[in-house]
Each structure stands twice: as C-alpha cells, then as structure tokens.
Amino acid sequence: MTRIAQQAKRVSASIPTIRRLPSYLQVVKLHRSEGFDVISGTVIAEELELEAIQVRKDLAVTGIVGKPRVGYPVDELISAIERFLNWDSGCRAVVIGAGNLGSALMGYKELKDHGLTLVAAFDMSLDRIGSRNNGPTVYPMSDMQSVVLKREAKLAILTVPARVAQNVCDKLVSAGIRQIWNFTNVRLRVPEDVLVLREDLSSGYAVLTVLRGIYS
Fold first, then answer.
1. How many C-beta atoms surround the C-beta of residue 84 within 10 A?
2. Same domain membership, residue 138 and residue 116
3. Distance between CA 156 and CA 173 in Å, rounded?
4. Is there a domain that residue 211 lies in?
C-alpha cells in the first residue's frame, strides 16, 4: 500500500476502530509468543468477545488481507497494525506536570514499546526537578519552550492543574507542539492545526460507579 493510500485509510477509519486495534495487536503478539504463525479473525474476536465480522472490518483499514479459512500471518498482521498506527515511525514527546499521574505515565513502559519517546518533563515544583531513573529529566516550567524546541518534541502529555492548563497549552503551541494528550478536565482552545485528545478519567469512573450497582 502506498503512503497516500495509507493516509486515506487512516482518515476513513472510525475512532472506535482505531481504539480497538491496540487490543488486536496485543492478542496477535500473545498468539505469536505461543508459537503460532497464523491467526484468524475468529480467534481474535473470541478472545475479545467481539463479532468476527467486526474484527475483519477493523483489520481491513490496515491494508492487510487474510486468507479464507486460514487467517492472517501473525508477523505481517503485527507490522500492518503498527504501521497503520504510526507506531513504527516513533514520536518525541514531553510530559507537562510531573506529579503522581505524570510520573506514572513516565514509567509506563508500553508507551516506549509503541514508539513514544519521552524526551523531557516539566513541573512547577522545585522538589521534582532533576533526573529520574524511571523517566526523562524534569525541568522547571520556565525552560519548557526552549527545551521543547531543542529536543524537537511533537507531542505533549498534559497533566497540570486545571487552573493553568490553558496557559500551558498556549505556550506549547507557541513552541511548535501540534499534538496534545490532555489529561486535565479543561476543554483546551487551540488553533485548527493542533490536535487535542482529551482523556477524561472521571467520565470513565462515572460509568463504573453507575454500573457497579447493577453488577454488585
């Protein structure tokens, strides 16, 4: 598949499809570790309690085509999913806010496994400044723009208090950041060429608390 065709596939893929692909990748990698060379859409579907036709439709956006009654070569399928997700090309990122959540993300190994390299972190508290064993060096917020430019970071993970989120966001945009993974509860205002993905942890917890009464 050409690069232009691959980009077109990405644009046409739905958000739910994109969100399911990492789960498929995990199942396929586990299958490979158990010595299998081929995996069917049905096996993936059963493992994740999905419909097989949904799995096949989702995998089709990666450009791979399975063989009827045989399945997909696992190595080719892994490469196809990682290539579609851009996990094979790498991304340089910074963490803004080195508190509990920021520190947890800095120590999350799977981010690195998926091509995300954390090149720096920033915090307002002087107690958190310095190098760390489980992550990047933490710099003072006053150094943020210069370090972002120097390290050529393209993505920022935002875990700062809500009261400063927009101000920090504005500075990141000025420094050239065009992708922001927003873990605050603030709906950020950004230019049209900046992509923001908001992870609302409280919304996810709200679903659990409501459903808890049904399953308890």
1. 22
2. yes
3. 10
4. no
113 vs 8, 80, 87, 116, 128, CA distance in Å? 26, 16, 8, 7, 25
What CA–CA distance (Å, rounded) separates 107 from 136?
Answer: 9
pLDDT by residue (tens digit) across 201-213? 888 788 888 887 7
Structure confidence by residue, pLDDT tens digits, 93-113: 999 999 999 999 999 988 888
Residue of 159, 203, 208, 166 whose CA lies nearest to 181: 159
Query: For the chain, what is the domain count?
Result: 2
- Distance between CA atoms of 6 and 81, rounded to whole angstroms? 11
- The residue among 84, 107, 123 that closes a domain is 84
Q: How many CA atoms lie within 13 A of 113 on its CB side?
A: 8
Give yes or no: residues 124 and 186 share one domain.
yes
pLDDT digits (tens, 9 = 90+) for 63-89: 998 888 889 999 999 999 999 999 988
Q: Give the CATH number of the domain where residue 13 resides.
A: 1.10.10.10
- One domain for residues 12 and 104: no
At 215, is the pLDDT very low, low, confident or very high (cuts 50, 70, 90)? low
Provide the domain limits for residue 18: 3-84
